[in-house]
Each structure stands twice: as C-alpha cells, then as structure tokens.
Write a structure and sequence with these properties.
The chain is an alpha/beta fold. Helices cover 53% and strands 14% of the residues. Strands 2-1-3-4-5-6 form a six-stranded parallel beta sheet, with helices on both faces. Helix 8 crosses helix 11. It is globular.
Length: 212
C-alpha cells in the first residue's frame, strides 16, 4: 500500500515513515509543505495521503486545505489528516466534499500505534475514521439534533461516525449482533436515506449526524 506523508517536522515525518514502512506500507514521498505535497500527488499513484493540518507559513490550516485541494485534483484520494486541534470549518469542508476515504485524528490518537495503523488501513480502503473529539466539536453548534432517533440509536450512529463497523459497535455497547443490525437499520429508516449499498448509507448517515 503506497503512502504520501505531508509533515513539516522532520523528526515526526521520519518517525511516521519508519512506522509505516515497518508495517508493510510503501512510503512513496514525504513533503514538508503544501506545494511539495501537490507536486508529489501529481507524480505518484498512491493509496492514501497522511497529512498534518498545521504547516508553514502560518501553521494554521495549510495541510487541511492541501488535502481538500488534493481530493479536488484527484477525486476519491483517501486522506488521513491529524492535528493537535480541530479545525472545524475545514474539517467540515473535507467531509462535505465526500467522506469516503477520509480520516481526522488528533495527535494523541496518532501516538497510539495500533489505532493509527488501523485508521490508515480503514481510510485507504474507503472508510471514514473520525476522532471522537472531532465528532464532539463538530456537533457543538448544531441546533437541530436528530430527534427521531432513540438515545441508543444516536449512540450507535455516533460510533458509526467514529468509523466503527457493526462488530466493533457490538463489542463497544455489549449488545447482540442482531440488536446492532436493528439499530443501524432504524437509523437508515428514520433518516430517510435512499436505498443503496450499506456502505454508502453509512456515509450518508454520518453526514446527517454531523449536519453536513
């Protein structure tokens, strides 16, 4: 699996590269700023980009904007971004532009190696992985909660928004597989999601949950 890394801190960039290489990934390129990242995206066919949000020159949201632009140039490019903070506006834009193959983790989550590698694989496979804190902050100012859902259904949907599959939701909530299937089905039904494959409906349900 081929990866491009966008990270301005050379120590962290080298660490990420070694971690991914030692875990079976092929690091195709490492960029330290947005222009170099854009050039690498145009030159390499990769399966995922791993992107730090805050980069030179302003150290605000350059990486996130670079990720959005990369997905505009190469639609469907899986992108996993990470940051110490949640950049709400651009995080919402990244998700709204198409949430298949998108992840947003806070840096303390990246330090948990197994969780980080699992997130990279999920996003590269077209999944959505959101740090629970990202979900919470994106929901803070939403004024129209999903009133049609029961508390349990909303809990299931929140876990779906974090990128968990049915089996993981079952383990997290300590409920049966049938109960998870029923709750997920109710979520789809109550959100009036059009019939389609279950993966696409999950994406639409998460976007509805985030108000996007």
């Amino acid at each position: 699996m081929r990866v491009i890394i966008l990270e301005d801190n050379p120590i962290l960039a080298e660490g990420l590269g070694l971690l991914l290489s030692n875990s079976g990934f092929e690091v195709s390129a490492v960029a330290a700023e947005a222009d170099g990242f854009a050039k690498a995206i145009s030159e390499h066919e990769v399966d995922i980009a791993v992107v730090d949000v805050r980069l030179p020159p302003t150290f605000t949201d350059e990486g996130l904007r670079a990720a959005i632009e990369a997905r505009r140039v190469r639609p469907g490019l899986p992108v996993l971004v990470f940051s110490q903070y949640v950049e709400e506006i651009y995080a919402a834009e990244l998700l709204a532009a198409g949430s298949e193959g998108v992840g947003y983790l806070l840096k303390d989550r990246v330090s948990r190696v197994d969780e980080f590698l699992d997130a990279v694989r999920r996003v590269a496979a077209g999944g959505t992985v959101l740090d629970p804190e990202v979900v919470s902050q994106l929901m803070v100012k939403k004024s129209n909660p999903l009133d049609r859902l029961t508390p349990r259904e909303r809990e299931v949907l929140a876990l779906m928004a974090e990128g968990l599959g049915n089996a993981e939701i079952r383990e997290k909530l300590v409920i049966s597989e049938g109960a998870v299937h029923k709750h997920v089905g109710n979520v789809f039904l109550k959100l009036d999601l059009p019939p389609s494959d279950s993966g696409h409906r999950r994406v639409l349900a998460v976007l509805a949950y985030l108000g996007l």
